Amino acid sequence: MGVSVKGAPNLDYFTPEQPILGKFIKYKEDEDGSSERDPPKLFKPLKIRALEIPNRIGVSPMCTYSTNNYMPTDFHLMHYGSLATRGPGIIIVECSAVSEGTAVTVNDMGIWNKEQASEHFSKIVKFAHSQNVIVGCQLGQFMRKVVQNVDEDNKAHNVEVGKEAHDLSTEEIKTIVEQWGTAAKLAVEVAKYDFIEIQAGKGHITNEFFSRLTNKRKDEYGGSFENRIRILLEIIDNVRKNIPEDTPLFIRLKACDNLDHPDAWSTDETIKLSFELAKHGVDVLDIAGRGLRIGPKSEKENKIIFLQQLKEAHKGKTNLLIASSGVISTADYASELLDKEAQDIILVGRPFLKNPNLVSFWADDVNITVTNAVQYSWGFYPTKSHLS
């Protein structure tokens, strides 16, 4: 007689109830599973406020340029659904604009009204949760547009259009801060996302304030370091006010301006800012980009050195966790970054596009067995024990 499997909850169709996917079971050489050895760090659980992620492998936010009127479609159901069944510790959904006119392109997502948030739930979050996968929403507000023009010689070139940050009035800034809080509230209460990530990287509104190269303001949002980070801290405070206390908050920053100029934003300023982020309720600092050109070594080595400095600065002082992406395509390299204490969470982008089953491949590479979706595991452990 076959094993009876319950259906996943909160769906209007049958799909099996799932275990926590991507969770360490045993080392492959431990045939009976009786060994009590700790899992490799890549598959060691991590608690962030009310969430416990089963492994340290996350899907980095990647634009797919496939929306319908700024809303997710069946493409997103298939795209994120294929990832959700394969056991990443977390999925960070591509950037969603917090206000009209601030998406990076017209094909990116938005979440500034209830209709959009409802589509996020029905096309992304509902299925992801049926698979026991933790999924978060990256919020953004892109203030400088890049369009492509063709000149007389039929050569394409990019032209920036739209507002820059230092053009904003104080009243406009206050409105922007409120827009972030509204979007965060919609993302958690209507779309049901498990956590929020603030996109504060290149081209997004807050990043334009950081560097003296782009911020020429003379008011309370310009000049000193404290003034230049003010808008970001106000946004963080308003987001935290609009989401439950046990909901994690991530933020994505670039490490520095990568320019040898006295007014450029520096890695020292990023480390200084990171302590303010921790004070204001940020749980995870996500450093974007491949690497740093400034420094004595290669971009890759410079970035690892910076991330190690960042983590060392917080050791014993705050609980801020460090995540980063940047073409991390092998289990060996991901494990090295964790072992060198360069970061706590490995965010992976393009390798997941090539191989949605990356988590299982990396589990094989480090010689362990992890939980898989029931539909893909009948030949390996087809008993009720898969739900333990």
Summarize the structure.
This protein is α/β, with parallel strands linked by helices and 388 residues long. Helices cover 31% and strands 18% of the residues.
Describe the protein's architecture and organization:
This protein is α/β, with parallel strands linked by helices. The chain has a single domain (25-379), classed as Aldolase class I (TIM Barrel). 31% of the residues lie in helices and 18% in strands. It has eleven helices and 15 strands. Helix 1 (74-84) runs parallel beside helix 2 (114-130) and helix 3 (170-189) packs parallel to helix 6 (230-241). The radius of gyration is 22 Å and the shape is globular. The two termini are 21 Å apart.
Please identify, by name, the CATH architecture.
Alpha-Beta Barrel
The CATH topology assignment is: TIM Barrel
Uncertain regions: pLDDT < 50 for 5+ in a row?
A: 145-151, 156-164
Could you give the distance between the termini? 21 Å
Count of spatially separate domains: 1
Mean pLDDT: 90
Q: Helical stretch count?
A: 11
Largest sheet: number of strands, sense, barrel closure? 8 strands, parallel, barrel
The quaternary organization reads as single chain
| Share of helical residues | 25-40%
The CATH first-level class comes to Alpha Beta
Strand fraction equals: 15-25%
| Order of secondary-structure elements | EEEEHEEHEEEHEHHHEHEHEHEHHE
Overall, the morphology is globular
CATH-wise, what's the superfamily? Answer: Aldolase class I
Order of strands across the biggest sheet?
Answer: 4-5-7-10-11-12-13-14
Write down how many β-strands occur, each being a DSSP E stretch of 2 or more residues.
Answer: 15
Domain NADH:flavin oxidoreductase/NADH oxidase N-terminal: 41-360
Keywords: Flavoprotein, FMN, NADP, Oxidoreductase
Pfam family, one: Oxidored_FMN
GO molecular function: FMN binding; NADP binding; NADPH dehydrogenase activity
